[in-house]
Amino acid sequence: MPGTAPRVAALLWALLIALTPAAAAWARPVGSADGPADVALAIGLTTAAATATGLWLRSRYRREEAEQRGGGEGGDP
């Protein structure tokens, strides 16, 4: 299913962009910038961004690999 990875990556990025302002508003300061909510928010956003980027790179790598295999021209011997 290499066709679904770009769509999933785009969906994750769209959700990340759409929900970030609301998530940042929930993380109210309680005396320290490194409260549990801030740490959880940072971990969640980093995980979502890494997952979306990984899916995008994987789909791109598979597409290039399929073009090299199926093309029959070019490429290194």
Automatic annotation (TrEMBL):
Alphabetized UniProt keyword annotations: Membrane, Signal, Transmembrane, Transmembrane helix
Signal sequence, start to end: 1-27
TM helices/strands, residue ranges: 37-57
The protein's name: Uncharacterized protein
Protein's organism: Streptomyces polychromogenes
